Amino acid sequence: MEFFENVNKRRAGVLVSLPSIVSEHSFECGDIYSLYPLCDWAKDVGFSIIQLLPLNDTGFGYSPYSAISAFAIDPLYISLYKLNINTKSRKREIKFLQNHPNRIRNLKLEIIRKHYLENQKEAMSEAAYFLEKHPWCYSYAAFRLLYEEFEGKGWWKWPKEFLDPNLAKEYIFSKRREDAFFWVYLQKIAFDQLSEVKVHFEDSGVYLKGDMPILTSRNSCDVWEHPEYFIMDLQAGAPPDDFSKTGQTWGFPVLNWEVLEKSNYSWWKERLSYLEHFFHLYRIDHVIGMYRIWAIPEEDSTALRGWFHPQFGITKEEFMKEGLDPKPFESLNLIHEFSPNHYIFYWDFWKEAAYQELAEETKTKLYPLSELHIKEEEKHWRESGEKILEIFESFSSMIPCAEDLGSVPSFIRESLFERQMIGIDVVRWTKSFTTGEFIPEESYRENAISVLSTHDTSLALDWWKNEGDPESKLQFFFDRLKKPRPETDEDILLGLLEFVFGTSSLFSIQLFQDLALGVPSVLENPENHRINLPGTTDHSNWTYRFPILMEDFASDFKRNLTLRKLLLDSGRNS
């Protein structure tokens, strides 16, 4: 298909959190209809990629990376306007920067349910046809109905008769058929609306990029139905680093790749096939997890007692060969028996007082054991990750883009480079390995996406004003290029945009808020326009709403002219 063949050229794009982009026809927050004026504006200015954060159903939660289904689209995004339901809620002026997703979703569900009941025969017929084509929705509808009934409690806390998904589905679709079909109908509507958006984007010459989280909430339809696909007594996270001395615990169960392989990765194939109905490209969240992942006992609140999974570990025989019995070291919390007679060393175990107090002779024998299998494990991780990514590529014609941020081991970087996977370079973190300084535009990876900010970071202006050394930033982004030092916030943002679009990266995709030239609220208080602050449960996360209607934003002649010139000068205009 020619449309796909032309994607790999120098392009610029926009990253949006869909509920934040309110249009004239939105109901309370951004929805699928909002993508039409967004696409038209993007094409007019010269952007040719729109990237969306995950659209998965979050249930009563907020984060789209902790959804209750790996497939289902959140009903929050259904456009009432596209459904020909003329219910208005939004005045011309947006007064608050936060949505209330649960309230908005409930209002929408009430309105659509009325529509469903008024057209029940036709609606149930359409839902039945959709169910036949997309059998994943059978378990989702049953799970969603029970999830609502038990007020979001973990499925493992449900009554015994609902712990068996097959029995539960049989009961729900026989005893509560109309209610179950309503949830199927919602997915049918969302599917149709988002599929139509993809056609509109193709007609406009704009590519739509989706997002595929690799991890799944423990309290999700997928884990409920297929617990065998997950290692339930482990949770995924990240090891300690400069940002977190105790690491990160995410709560998601670790994927059981061995079981997934036995099913020919059918769950992944189904997921990718479904995403392809809507997107041309997709972001693989935490691609490092395809190679290995930091696994922590499910009950732990810190990541200190985790290990890279899968891991060979050190066998009891290997300890005994050195004249060491592993049990005393386990009692000192230096090692852990993660499988019978196989041990892992805890992160930074050598810093522990218990290790320091060991006899030097013992330390001389013990420490080398911690590095005994590193080379063969890295080889195994690399082969496993490449196998998985190759299988993913065979499942879909969508172009994968790797989220390869953070501390990426050299063997994974080499693997992604050799596979020509498109990575991501965040300007504030893209620095020389030798000097620690920012690198110039021409030194950026060509096969990557250059960005000023992500959904998990502060905005570019917030970073400029409040993070790091201001003088070094001025010298690099302005003095080095013989540009006058900025006098206003808009000057700063313009300088940063000119830099990021000028990088040698194949794509340059910017957070929508970082394009808000001429929007006083964003320029003066960028800290109020952040999407997510990782590691916090504050309900202001994932509730952000842009302060201007999309149509009003798109009609600003001066901003459009400025952005159009930036894209033209950088050779990124579509």
Overall description:
This protein is α/β, with parallel strands linked by helices and 574 residues long. It contains 22 helices and 15 strands. α2 links the parallel β1 (11-16) and β2 (49-52). The two termini are 18 Å apart. It has helices at 2-5, 35-45, 101-118, 120-133, 136-149, 165-175, 177-204, 221-225, 257-262, 266-275, 316-321, 326-331, 353-356, 360-370, 374-395, 410-418, 460-466, 470-479, 489-501, 520-524, 550-554, 557-569, and strands at 11-16, 49-52, 207-212, 230-238, 248-255, 281-284, 293-297, 307-309, 314-315, 335-339, 342-345, 399-402, 423-426, 448-451, 507-511. α5 crosses α7.
Shape: globular
Determine the mean pLDDT.
95
Uncertain runs are none
Treating each run of at least 4 consecutive H or I residues as one helix, how many helices?
A: 22
The oligomeric status of these chains comes to: single chain
Order of adjacent strands in the largest pleated sheet: 12-6-3-2-1-15-14-13
Kindly state the percentage of residues in helix. Answer: 40-55%
Terminal residue distance: 18 Å
Question: Strand percentage, roughly?
Answer: 5-15%
Structural class: alpha/beta
Report Rg.
25 Å
Number of strands: 15
Largest sheet: 8 strands, parallel
GO molecular function, one term: 4-alpha-glucanotransferase activity
Protein name: 4-alpha-glucanotransferase
Keywords: Carbohydrate metabolism, Cytoplasm, Glycosyltransferase, Transferase
Organism: Leptospira perdikensis
